[in-house]
Amino acid sequence: MIDMLILAEKASAAKHMAKAFGGTTGNVGGKTYKIVHAHGHLMEFKEPEKMVATEADKQRYSSWTDMQTMPWNQADFSWAKTYTKAYNAYTKKSKSTRADVAAIKAEAANAQAILIATDNDPSGEGDLLGWEIVNAIKWQKPVYRIRFADETPKSLNKAMQQMVEITDQFKQGEYLKSDARSKWDFLSMQLTRISTYAARQAGYRVKVINQGRLKSVIVLKIWQQQQLIDNYVKTPYFEAKFKDPAGHIFARKLKDDARKQAARFADETSGQADVAQYTKSPVTNIKREHKTQAPGALLDLAKLGSLLAQQGFNSKEVLATYQKMYEAEIVSYPRTEDRKITQEQYNELLPVVDTIATVVGVDPQLLTHRVLRSKHRASSAAHGANRPGIKVPKSMAELAKYGPSAQAIYKTLAANYLAILGEDYEFDRITAELQLYPDFKTGFNVPVKLNYRAIFDDTEQVATEVKSPSAVVGPDAAPFMYQGANPKPTRPSADWIGKFLEKHNIGTGATRLSVQAQLISGKNAFINEKRGFYTLTQPGTIAAVLVRNTWIGSPSITKQLFDHMDAVGKLNEAPAVVIDSATKVIAHDLPLILNNSQELAQFVGKQSAARTTKKYRPKPKAQGQYQDGPTVEFNSTWSGHKFSAEEIRSLLQGDVISFNATSKYGKTYTATGSLKQQTFKGKKFWGFKADFGK
DNA sequence: GCAAGGTC
Q1: Domain final residue pick, A469, A485, A501
Q2: Which of A423, A452, A521, A661 is 20 to 30 A off residue A42, Cα-Cα?
Q3: Which of A495, A493, A517 is nearest to A214 (CA)?
Q4: What region holds the Toprim domain (predicted)?
């Protein structure tokens, strides 16, 4: 008989505990122990119709069409749980957790107590997961709890010294709050039945129209943004600005609408008349300020996914490959929410950073900053930000076996991490204004020392940063007419949705990504993904239109749920209040969804019609004789660059040319290439072809 | 056929 059975959440945690306590079995703090582990939730609620007692209720609760039964009466439910039937998307196998629970039960038979040992996640998910197992094996003896800040030996041993008894689960706030959360979410499945029914009633032959706290909010947000894009009308304006001989632009800061109104003109003639009021002016008040900037935040999986999307890897592939690399301990735990690391986690990786640098081709001499900056340090981070693992691959080539994106994952992850070992980026901030019109100012940065940016460049936009700018400002600047336009709404993307969910605290690091992956995959996908950019499919559009103006489609519903959960966690509110709030949401949204279905024809129809009748807009062409041979015609712009007359001449001679191009993500880069005959969808055409190397 | 939360 051992003193305690230590129950870990997953295999990797059990392994780290074995390392910290001196084996899978042994003695820690004067108590004998054995470590076992689950893999996530081993139990989940039974189907609704299997949680009710009477035959009549079984009938009602299995219906997808009886709107009179909803909202469900939670008093009818036993809230009984059953073994999780987890479908693994990578192995494509469905497996019950029955055997896992039985194995834990067998081990528990030899123990005096069970110790639930998970990280200190305040949502209480670890408590729920532990209690599900403890209840499933009908355990009647004492239950203890430890919570740890991270899985390093030091933190695990520290946690062990702060063990508490929690045998009465109904007095444990963390358990009560996550139990309430799970019931709230379970009840929200009614909205899927309601939406599926509503769409079919409106004549759409849909499979299932899924709705939930995450799904509905994501899909509605994309739809609303698509509406903004579809209804966007480009409105050009004309505004007086100045330019000095080196090309620095001097403009007014137009903070509010009134100022914009006064300075911008809708027509060119008025704009020109405005510009004519100004004369050339000397440049004055030139200031040069030396500044530094520390490396940016570390990555989480959502951010890593969006970076790799730009390289053409889809989120599903990245998730699968990352998982394999995690199992090989080459990278850290995937499903973290952390963007920081603990001092312990930093110390653990320090001995191998030079080796990692060598493997990914970063100069180890750049890694001189050996103190963890406070902006990257957390006192508690269960797994820490996504980063390289302690096991370092011998070469990049070795990684290929994990998947197509493995090398890109490792390179990005390693460079991002190593950047925090680089010194701050140094630059000069240069500002100046016009002597005659001091409202017109310029400001730009000139790089002095790249430092960490030579390891990992985290600049998203090339805002006022000039790659090789002239630091010489003035001596004077001349007025010119600047033509601008109201900005086009952002295209929905994985990154954009990720930021939105994070801002509203909707979902966790793990679910934000897995829900998006669900919405993107399968025959009934709601989202089309292309290089990280999102558009809605027809069922996706239906799902979105149905939840317009509903509570489930609103980000604030999660906030309300979490506020209630916090009160439950502090034992200030009865869990029943949380569950009642779910019923209120159903009661509120049911008539709205049925009503919204009358608008489906308008939006779903209209949108597909607009797509098919979209006019083809011809692109500006250049033409000429190619190398004394055929007369060819080709697009006169390429990746944001308009070929000059001279470049067109060079291209027609067959020369290789280089120019500054802008990617669709706004990055500028040097493109090199020549005019070539190419094939697209079986059609031959002439056009510039960049030489991107291999 | 349903949620979100874990996990692989």
Answers
A1: A485
A2: A521
A3: A517
A4: 3-152
Of the three residues A559, A590, A612, the one that is the final residue of a domain is: A612
- DSSP lists the bridge partners of residue A5 as A34, A114
Chain A 24-83, CB < 7 Å to strand B? 39-42, 44-45, 47-49, 62, 64
Q: Is residue A469 a contact partner of residue A446, using CB atoms and an 8 Å limit?
A: yes
Tell me, what DSSP letter sits at residue A341? B
Tell whether A225 and A85 lie within a shared domain: no
- Is A511 found in the same domain as A473? no
Please say whether the beta carbons of A210 and A192 come within 8 A. yes
How far is residue A104's CA from residue A102's CA, in Å, rounded to a whole number? 5
Asked if A465 and A337 sit in the same domain, the reply is: no
| Assigned token pair, A320 | 């699968």
A82-86, A485-489, A579-583, range with the lowest pLDDT: A82-86
Residues 137-176 of A with CB under 7 A from strand B: none
Q: Do A207 and A523 contact (CB within 8 A), yes or no?
A: yes
Helices within A293-352 (DSSP H only): 301-309, 315-327, 343-349
Q: Radius of gyration over alpha carbons of chain A, in Å?
A: 30
Flag residues 467-486 of A with CB < 7 Å from strand B.
none
d(CA A626, CA A616): 27
Higher pLDDT, A80 or A659: A80
Contact A689, A675 (CB under 8 A): yes
Q: Are residues A358 and A411 in the same domain?
A: yes
Specify the 3-state DSSP secondary structure of A467. Answer: coil
pLDDT tens for each residue of A440-499: 999 999 999 999 999 998 776 445 555 556 778 989 999 999 999 999 999 999 889 988
The strand pairing partners of A683, in sequence order, are: A680
* A85 is a domain residue: yes
Q: Which chain B positions come under 7 Å from a protein C-beta?
A: 1-8
Cα–Cα distances (Å) from A461 to A300, A384, A446, A637, A669, in that order, read 20, 27, 15, 22, 12
User: Which range of residues forms the domain containing residue A257?
Assistant: 236-294+429-485
